[in-house]
Amino acid sequence: MSAPHPLAPEARLLAARDVAGLILALAIVGMPHALRAPWWLTLLTLCLYGWRAVAFAYPRALPAQWLLFLIAGAAMLGVWLAYHTIFGRVVGIVLLLLFSGLKLLETRTHRDAAAVVFLCYFLMITNFLYTQGIFEALAMCLALAVITATAVGFSAPQRALRANIHTAAMLLAHAAPAGLLLFLLFPRVQGPMWGLPQDAQSAVTGLTDTMSPGNIAQLAQSDALAFRAEFTQRIPAPRQRYWRGPALSEFDGRTWRAGLLQLADAPPGLQDGTTYRYSVLLEPHHRHWLFALESPAQRPPHANFSSDGLLLSISPIRNRLRYDMVSVADARPDPAEDPLLLRRALQLPRGYNPKARALGEEWRRAAGNETEVLARAIEFFRSSRISYTLEPPVLGHDSVDEFLFSTRAGFCEHFASAFVFLMRAAGLPARVVTGYLGGDPNPVDGILTVRQSDAHAWAEVFLSGRGWLRVDPTAAAVPARLDAGLARSVPGNVGLPLLMRPELEWLRGLRYNWEALAHQWNVWVLGYNPERQREFMSWFGMHGADWRDLATALLASMCVFAASLLAWSLRRRTRPDPVQAAWHRFCRKLGARGLARAPHEGPRDYADRAARDVPAAANAIRRIGELYILLRYGRTSAQAQLVELKRLVRSLKLA
Amino acid sequence: MLRALRTNPRWVSWFYGFTPPERGIILLGHRRVYIVPTRLGWMFAGALAILLLGSVNYALALGYVLTFLLGGMGFACMVHTARNLALLSVSPGRTEPVFAGEAAQFRLHLDNPSRFDRPSILARHVASGAQLVVDAAANSVAQAMLAVPAARRGRLALGRVMLETRFPLDLFRAWSYVEPEAHCLVYPRPAHSALPPAEAQAAGGGARALAPGNDDFSGLRAYQASDSPRHIAWKTVARTGDLLTKQFSEDAAAELWLDWQHTPSRLGTEERLSLLTGWVLAAERSGASYGLRLPGAEIAPGRGEAQRAECLQALAMFDPP
Question: What sign does the dihedral B171-B177-B183-B189 (CA atoms) show?
């Protein structure tokens, strides 16, 4: 019993095929990480893989343990120098990549190889922290196939690779239904169970709650998705597609901030206008706000209105979120407003932008009423010939003055900031509103896609007796921005995302199809959350299913699946030999007449005895016996003889 | 109760699903195939738990997909592992007799009637630990030779054999016990010593000693495997290519009796049998005609493979009165 167990993984050494499979699997799962890791670490990991491959031909080239420790120590020092920490998510993933190379290098038996396989699984799932698209899912399937085929090779070292791949494919095919059932029915838990690391929300682009010159222009160069909106009936006209984000009321001379927010239960009162019903699928941005078409008339669950008309979720949007909305476009706003808010909307920092301040005060003096001040301001922007550019010049201390009177080029945040400044100088309460303008309706599925490149800033002015009115100074200066979107408003396509350039129409067509698919992916795979799960269960008549119902349904369906898989494995090959089948039929026919074959009786004896007892069919019976012996024991077997045997047996009459 | 479970043959056969020894072809039904996770299987389950925790905490939809796919694969692996062993037919093959101290080569036929191959099946002789890994291809019969040490003369029963597999992913271990009715004849361990002296044989029954020099050539006959190379007619072989053995008149007449009574009585039964075994082998090598006389049994003189086998079997199965 002391002999090593020949099937135990620690007793079996790796073959060249196993090493090749492991390196291939690691290359697939490690690639996305390698593109993000520091270049020297990627290079080091690749060298370690290469070393293992070489060491297969020259086993003496495998490093000693102390050398591996040395490499690990040096690499960890490098990581510390690059990140100033060896903890945290990003660093952890980078180290995981490094360890995959180190582990591979000390892999000698199948037990070590199993550890590498587990490392592959962890490398795969950590990639999903960054991106979970369709391509990543396909890459995952490919990696799983390679890993499984390699692992099958561990337990069947003598078997052909093709057969192992076939087994792996069968395993994955059998895993898929179980995986689907688990995915749909496993009781989902929402939200983090413990705190996310500090760096969990790094590298997420999107609107922030501040605005200073140039930061929206920078955001507008990103092609990243902000959200998608699916309208139930019609899609609003381009000039109505203002998606409201945070309103910014506090200005320190350079940066606009949101300031304190008050929560309100009810939406601001609205009258008239066109009602739109739609649902929004919002990408996670780790902030509280929810985007809605101006002006939102309804509050999604787990959200509140702020006093400046913004929708705020109770918890930050960490996962893709879907919510139904009702908005009223072009409505008449509520004329009543909190005086405290109005006072805040008039504040201006001292010592900034003296020329703009003077201009505003001049308008105030010259104009008879608020409406006329507003008209003068809009007229000022319309005739100003300030150019609209994605690459605005850098502004100094008096950002509004420089923009209006010297550089005369800017992006929407410059226009909005200057306009609000002028309005406040003229004594009208005003604020900056950030959000998105536009959105691309997909001709394939009609879903409106809003990207970061649609980011926009506009202004709201409060007129007494009329309430807050939206004024878009950018649209006044560059009317094309409203109807044609960013791409046609910026001259010369400077700095535009590639796919927004008008000459690439065909590419956009392709992209529309792809996005329609991606939307379904987002809704059904990535956005499958406890609510979706309940919705799914209600299709089967299980309304308001809680986790117990889900667990019961999961258990029941898994039992059905297990039973069918077991039945598949129990199935025996029942494909009787046609000669044997014909002979059995012959025996049954004779048996029915009381001439059953004795166990010791051979076909010749049996046929002779039967022929004597049934003289009428003696010839046929003898011929059947002859044919059976010929087909069963003869050296050659002809199809014609088999056909004859079948025919004779079928037409045998014993009566 | 537990003792009854272990000792009562009816309980034992109920527990294992068969009554040893089993005659004929043994079909491994699903009821006879046991399966448990291996250590690697438990580690796989642990890794899945970590993946699931990560997926829940970071709300990774694709993490869920990965975790559940792997979970499904673990489940499928269990069925595949059991299937790799179930519905296999086991039957014993012929075994050649061996001498005590050697290893009996038990042959097991693993008949795979299915359309899929069953790789990496371990056959392990439970008592001795003799083991072998075989691959049973689809629609074919694989052979496993188990080298079981034969310590004592007599009839060695194969005993219990465990068939085990961990294919395809090493996550589960499926095994089954079989106890086919297979025996190996074990001859006594031969003691190498000179043939008994001539006078002893004369006392035994008229046979004359084989003395060198008495070789009056009497003719040629066809070569037999047991013939001494010294008696092959090499010249004839060179001329005709036929293997012929020279026969000598004295040889033909000589009758050698190997008698229990000629072995020293101070020795124990087994040692005396060993001595007789050595004599049988030596007599066969010398090409003489020999007979065996044991208490209660006598084998008439003869020569050749059959005579040798008969004598050795009588020695192997000798039951002292």
Answer: positive
* Rounded CA separation A279/A327 (Å): 11
Interchain CB contact of A152 with B (< 8 Å): yes
Distance, in Å, from the CA atom of A323 to the CA atom of B201, rounded to the nearest integer, reads 111
> Residue A14 in 3-state DSSP?
coil
- Measure Cα distances from A6 to A9, A164, A217, B130 in Å: 8, 20, 66, 11
**Within an 8 Å CB–CB cutoff, is residue B51 touching chain A?**
yes
ipTM of the complex: 0.77
Distance CA A30, CA A655 (A): 78
- pLDDT tens-place string over residues A150-189: 999 998 888 899 999 999 999 999 999 999 999 999 988 7
From the list A425, A433, A521, the residue with the least C-alpha distance to A471 is A433
- Does the distance separating the beta carbons of A167 and B65 come in below 8 Å? no
Chain B residues near residue A171 by CB distance under 8 angstroms: 73, 76-77, 80, 168-169
Euclidean distance between CA atoms B299 and B78, whole angstroms: 58
Measured CA to CA, the distance from residue B11 to residue A618 in angstroms comes to 55
Report the residue of A182, A201, A286, A525 to disrupt the B interface, i.e. the one with the largest count of B CBs within 10 Å.
A182
- Partners of A565 on chain B (C-beta within 8 Å) are 75-76, 79
Interface test with B, best of A155, A283, A550 (most B CBs within 10 A): A155
A5 token code pair: 């167990």
B66 pLDDT above the threshold of 90: yes
A498 CA to centre of own chain: 22
Per-residue b or e along B298-309, where b marks 16 or more CB atoms closer than 10 Å to that residue's CB: ebebebeeebbe
Say if residues B170 and B130 touch (Cβ distance below 8 Å). Answer: no
- ω before B21 within 30° of 0 (cis)? yes
CB-side exposure of A568: number of CA atoms within 13 Å? Answer: 13
Specify the 3-state DSSP secondary structure of A95. Answer: helix
Identify the H or E element spanning A547. Answer: helix A547-570
The number of beta carbons lying within 10 Å of the beta carbon of residue A289 is 25
pTM of the model: 0.67
Degrees to nearest 5, angle at CA A315 with A311 and A318: 105
Using the Cα atoms of residue A345, residue A349, residue A355 and residue A358 in order, give the sign of their dihedral: positive
Q: Which residue of B has its CA nearest to A567?
A: B79
Nearest partner of A299 among A290, A308, A287, A286, judged by Cα: A290
